[in-house]
Description:
Layout: H1 12-23, H2 29-38, H3 47-58, H4 66-77, H5 81-90, H6 96-154, H7 197-204, E1 216-220, E2 234-239, E3 242-249, E4 255-258, H8 259-265, E5 276-280, E6 285-286, E7 290-298, E8 301-310, E9 316-319, H9 320-324
Parallel strand pairs: 1-5, 3-9, 4-8
Antiparallel strand pairs: 2-3, 2-7, 5-6, 7-8
Helix pairs in contact: 3-4
Amino acid sequence: MLQWGEGEKDDPSKVLDKFANYIRPRKNKRIARHRFKERKQGVTEGFDHFVKDLRLLLMDCEYGDPDDMLIDAIIAGVREKRVQERLLDKGEDLTLPKAIEIAQQFELSQRQIKIVREEESQVQAVKVKTKYQTANKKTFQKNQAKFVQKEMYVNRPKNCPSCGKDPQHKWNQGKCPAKGSVCSYCHKPNHWVAVCRKRSVNAVSVQLQSETEDEEMLSINITQTDEHSDDKWTADIEILSQKMPFRIDTGAKCNTLTLSSYQRLLHDGELKCSNRVLKSYSNHKLKPIAAVDLLTKYKDAEILTEFEIVDISQENVLSGATAEA
């Protein structure tokens, strides 16, 4: 039963407050804090939904600094370890808006990479289909050439196979004029060029066009990561306010950025499909998963650089042409 003070029943605001307190579940900040600390991002759950649910749980926790507690919960519960590492790297400079921005940018980059890979798979499927159709077309053309050749031989007029004229040779007293002559095409005896079978074969043969590749082959140097490398051919390049280690390879025809390095950048810009195939000095071929244009800075120089993103464990590579620029 509700307990009423004197005159409270006549005050609408008091009535509403009493009713709200009566029907609202009793708060237990200990249980609320336990649920808040145990909340983890699901395998398929988006980051925005995860943060929204944390905010709802936080409402009943009665913390003195709710934003700081929310940052701790995001670090402890975020699914991606790379986001967790990036948040921890910020240390005391990490604010709640910055923490949310870092996680959202990483999630966006993952979606972009997935889209690029799906587009690449579709392109590869089209290439395989085209190659299969081309192979079938070649087989059909070969069979058609043989059929035409056979038809020409079977259905040709019943003339002399040596001179191509009346096989009785009545006009030449029954003697074939090609006997003893040499064909001017195949240089074999006893027939004329008009009935040369080798010439007929070549006349109906189908010239097959060689398949051309629309992918550009570039050479790169694939090397294993060496964290202790310290020589004049390595340099720390600033990209999106982060220092990235690169090996300068004067023989490389393009710049490569490993997928793990790209993901650490949390780049939220556009990715491009790559039509290149990278070839190492040991003749190993590698297809980049995407290409990207990034603003790079070294000392006082700042240029827009194109990188091929490769999903392998190796050093980032800067071509000699880019290093000179």
